[in-house]
C-alpha cells in the first residue's frame, strides 16, 4: 500500500512540476508585442530542474536539483536557482552551488551567481567564488586565455568580462595580477586597473614567444626533468 501511495504521489507531482516549468517559460517571454515574440521564437529559452516551486502572486520562482537554463549557445547550470520579477521586462535570477555558465565565447565557474534577463534575453551575469574562474573557448594552446578572481562580471551583449578582487589572468602565457581587469573577449584586449583609480599596483609577467615559456608543456619544467631522469635510470 505504501508503495502504491508513493507511486501515486510521483504521478501527481510530475504534471505539477511540468506545469510550473511551463509557466516560468511563458513568463520569460517579454510582454512587448507579437513582433518581439516572433524574433525570440528562433532563440527560445529552455529550462529544466528536478523541483520547481512557483509563487505567481509574489512573482518568485524557486528551482532546485540539476537546474539548467539555456538560450541558443548560452547556458547556466547550478544546484539551486531563484527567479524574481519574471512578469517584468527585467527579470533577475540567482544561482547557488556549483554554478557553471557557458557562452559561445567563454566558460565561467563559481560558487554563486546572479543574472539579468532583459526583454527575454540573458543580458549579464555576476559570478562570485573563492575564486570564480573564466576561460575563453576555442583558443589555441599557445593563446590560451583564462583568469580567476573573487568577482567576475560578464556583459554578454558587449562581450566584456570584468574581474575584481584578487585577480589573476593569463593570456597566451603572459600573466596579469591586480585588483581590477577588464577583458574584451571578441577583441582579445586586456585593460588592467582601468583609469588608474583602483588601489594597488599592477603586476605583469611577459613570456616571449621565442622562449617557449608560454606553452602549457613548459609550465612545470621540474616534472619533465624528473621523468627524464627516471627513464634513464
Question: If you had to describe this structure to a student in words, what would you say it looks like?
Answer:
There is one protein chain. With 233 residues, the chain is α+β, with helices and mostly antiparallel strands. The protein has three helices and twelve strands, in the order ααββββββββββββα. The protein has a single domain, classed as Lipopolysaccharide (LPS) transport protein A like domain (lipopolysaccharide transport protein A fold), CATH 2.60.450. Strands 1, 2, 3, 4, 5, 6, 7, 8, 9, 10, 11 and 12 form a twelve-stranded antiparallel sheet that branches. It is elongated. It starts with a helix and ends with a helix. Residues 9-21, 27-42 and 216-233 have low confidence and may be disordered.
Residue-averaged pLDDT: 77
The low-pLDDT segments are 9-21, 27-42, 216-233
Largest sheet: 12 strands, antiparallel
Distance from first to last alpha carbon: 70 Å
Q: Quickly count the domains.
A: 1
Gyration radius from CA atoms, angstroms: 22 Å
The third-level CATH topology is lipopolysaccharide transport protein A fold
Which CATH architecture?
Sandwich
Number of strands: 12
What's the SSE pattern?
A: HHEEEEEEEEEEEEH
The percent of residues in helical segments reads 10-25%
Shape: elongated
CATH superfamily: Lipopolysaccharide (LPS) transport protein A like domain
CATH class: Mainly Beta
What structural class results from the helix and strand content? alpha+beta
Helix run count? 3
Strand content: over 45%
Please specify the SSE layout and strand pairing.
Layout: H1 2-28, H2 34-40, E1 45-48, E2 51-55, E3 60-71, E4 74-84, E5 90-102, E6 106-118, E7 121-136, E8 145-155, E9 160-171, E10 174-184, E11 189-192, E12 203-205, H3 221-232
Antiparallel strand pairs: 1-3, 2-3, 3-4, 4-5, 5-6, 6-7, 7-8, 8-9, 9-10, 10-11, 10-12
Amino acid at each position: 500500500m505504501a508503495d502504491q501511495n508513493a507511486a501515486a504521489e510521483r504521478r501527481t507531482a510530475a504534471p505539477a512540476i511540468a506545469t510550473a516549468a511551463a509557466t516560468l517559460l511563458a513568463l520569460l517571454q517579454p510582454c512587448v508585442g507579437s513582433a518581439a515574440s516572433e524574433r525570440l521564437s528562433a532563440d527560445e529559452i529552455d529550462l529544466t530542474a528536478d523541483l520547481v516551486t512557483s509563487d505567481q502572486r509574489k512573482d518568485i520562482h524557486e528551482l532546485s536539483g540539476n537546474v539548467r537554463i539555456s538560450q541558443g549557445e548560452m547556458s547556466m547550470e547550478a544546484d539551486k536557482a531563484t527567479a524574481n520579477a519574471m512578469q517584468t521586462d527585467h527579470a533577475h535570477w540567482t544561482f547557488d552551488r556549483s554554478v557553471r555558465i557557458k557562452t559561445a565565447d567563454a566558460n565561467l565557474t563559481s560558487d554563486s551567481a546572479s543574472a539579468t534577463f532583459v526583454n527575454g534575453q540573458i543580458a549579464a551575469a555576476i559570478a562570485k567564488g573563492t575564486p570564480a574562474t573564466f576561460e575563453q573557448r576555442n583558443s589555441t594552446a599557445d593563446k590560451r586565455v583564462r583568469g580567476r578572481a573573487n568577482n567576475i562580471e560578464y556583459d554578454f551583449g558587449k562581450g566584456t568580462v570584468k574581474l575584481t578582487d584578487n585577480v589573476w589572468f593569463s593570456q597566451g602565457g603572459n600573466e596579469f595580477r591586480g585588483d581590477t581587469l577588464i577583458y574584451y573577449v571578441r577583441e582579445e584586449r586586456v585593460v588592467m586597473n582601468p583609469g588608474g583609480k583602483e588601489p594597488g599596483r599592477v603586476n605583469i609577467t611577459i613570456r616571449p614567444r621565442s622562449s617557449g615559456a608560454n606553452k602549457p608543456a613548459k609550465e612545470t619544467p621540474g616534472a619533465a626533468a624528473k621523468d627524464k631522469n627516471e627513464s634513464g635510470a
